């Protein structure tokens, strides 16, 4: 993890350092968020891009859906991305548990699908603004693929857009974006510094046992937990003190 985490700290400085190869015809790929189904930790969105004439090289490098790879394999592939920076570009964006909870619990709810769409669009726009020439976009769908594809096609008329289920298992460079997102999330979880006194470090914060052990009757859960998830809402109703506003 040390090498992977070092790569992530470098990301803030050069995530949009555009190589000459990426100013030619370029595919841009976005993977769905890492951490979407679970009640704790951030959600991380990633994109990866490379010239059209180098897209097949990613398959030869061994990229596959991050969910089918173990941690060691994902870290190795992130290192492969970093060492091939002459033609592979990538970026991630992190939504903290607090961002997610506040968005989903506000009066005018901002749901998970909308967050995913807007974050992906922002990543794509930032890449384009940095000088990446986008001609094809491949996205792993969040929600119905047809409406999501139509939305992206309207926003990026210069590119051919493909939105489909399981894109991270169909297109190697989508797999690369998925790996960037997953390794980022894993690094954040492992390096998490609890602000709350008495909060327990965890191996798997997604277990009900860990949530039960760390619920406070007044303050609820540590900041790593998403208060807007159904699992956490049920535990709060069961274990926390009721409040009338």
TrEMBL record:
Name recorded for this polypeptide: Ribonuclease
One Pfam family named in its UniProt record: RNase_HII
Top-level taxon: Eukaryota
Residue ranges of every copy of the RNase H type-2 domain listed in the record: 26-241
An MF annotation (GO) of this entry: RNA-DNA hybrid ribonuclease activity
Record organism: Thamnocephalis sphaerospora
InterPro entries documented for this protein: RNase_H2_suA, RNase_HII/HIII, RNase_HII/HIII_dom, RNase_HII_hlx-loop-hlx_cap_dom, RNaseH-like_sf, RNaseH_sf
Catalytic activity, as annotated: Endonucleolytic cleavage to 5'-phosphomonoester
Family, per entry: Belongs to the RNase HII family. Eukaryotic subfamily.
Alphabetical keyword list: Endonuclease, Hydrolase, Metal-binding, Nuclease
Class of enzymatic activity (EC top level): hydrolase
């Amino acid at each position: 993890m040390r090498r992977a985490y070092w790569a992530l700290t470098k990301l803030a400085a050069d995530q949009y350092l555009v190589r000459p190869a990426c100013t030619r015809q370029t595919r841009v790929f976005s993977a769905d968020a890492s951490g979407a189904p679970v009640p704790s930790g951030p959600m991380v969105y990633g994109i990866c891009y490379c010239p059209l004439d180098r897209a097949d090289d990613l398959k030869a490098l061994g990229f596959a859906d991050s969910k089918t790879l173990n941690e060691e394999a994902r870290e190795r592939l992130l290192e492969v991305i970093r060492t091939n920076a002459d033609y592979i570009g990538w970026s991630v964006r992190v939504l903290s548990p607090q961002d997610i909870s506040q968005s989903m619990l506000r009066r005018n709810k901002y749901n998970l699908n909308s967050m995913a769409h807007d974050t992906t669009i922002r990543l794509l726009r930032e890449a384009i603004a940095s000088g990446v020439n986008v001609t094809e976009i491949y996205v792993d769908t969040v929600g119905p693929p047809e409406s999501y594809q139509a939305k992206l096609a309207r926003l990026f008329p210069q590119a051919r857009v493909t939105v489909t289920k399981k894109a991270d298992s169909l297109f190697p460079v989508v797999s690369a974006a998925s790996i960037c997102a997953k390794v980022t999330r894993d690094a954040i979880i492992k390096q998490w510094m609890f602000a709350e006194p008495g909060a327990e470090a965890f191996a798997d914060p997604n277990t009900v046992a860990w949530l039960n052990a760390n619920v406070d009757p007044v303050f609820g859960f540590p900041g790593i937990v998403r208060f807007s998830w159904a699992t956490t809402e049920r535990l709060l109703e069961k274990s926390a003190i009721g409040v009338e506003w």
